[in-house]
Amino acid sequence: MERPSLEINLPDTHEEGKLYVVDSLNNLNKLNVCPAESQHALDEEENTLGAGENTAGSNRKQCLFFVTFILTLIVSLALVSFVIFLIIQTRNRMDQISSRLLLEKKNIEELKKMNNMILKHLNQSGFKE
Asked: Where are its TM segments located (predicted)?
C-alpha cells in the first residue's frame, strides 16, 4: 500500500504561517500513518507529557537542588560546631594541665627548699658529734 507523497509548495508567508502549515502537515501525516483510535491516544500523550514533563522535571530538579543545598548547609554547620566544641574542650584541658604543672613546679621548689634545710640541719648536727 504505497501512498503518494504529498508535495506542497509553500507560498511566501510569514514565519507564523509557515509554522502553522508545518504543524498542519504533521497532523495530516499522523492521520495517514495512525488509525483514528491510536491518533487520539497520541494527541493526549503529547498534550499531557509535552507541557507537564518540562515543568514537573524542572520543579523536581529545583526541589532536589534546594533539598541537597539545605542538607549540605546543615551538615556543614554541624561539622563546624563540632570543630568549635573540640577547640574549646582542648583549650580547657590545656589550661587545666598548665595550671597543674605550675602547682607541681611550686611543690617541687618547696620540696627542694625543705631538702636543703634538712641537709643543712644534718650537716650541722653531724659536725657537732
From this structure: 64-88
CB distance 39 to 30 below 8 Å: yes
Residue 22 to residue 10: CA distance in whole angstroms: 10
- Listed by start position, the domains of the chain span 58-128
Predicted confidence (pLDDT) at residue 1 exceeds the cutoff of 50:
no
In angstroms, the CA 77 to CA 45 distance is 46
pLDDT, tens digit (0-9, with 9 covering 90-100), for 26-77: 777 776 665 555 555 556 655 555 555 567 778 888 999 999 999 999 999 9
Three-class secondary structure assignment of the chain: CCCCCCCCCCCCCCHHHHHHHHHHHHHHHHHHHCCHHHHHHHHHHHHHHHHHHHHHHHHHHHHHHHHHHHHHHHHHHHHHHHHHHHHHHHHHHHHHHHHHHHHHHHHHHHHHHHHHHHHHHHHHHHHHC
Say which residue the cell 634545710 belongs to: 117
DSSP for residue 13: -
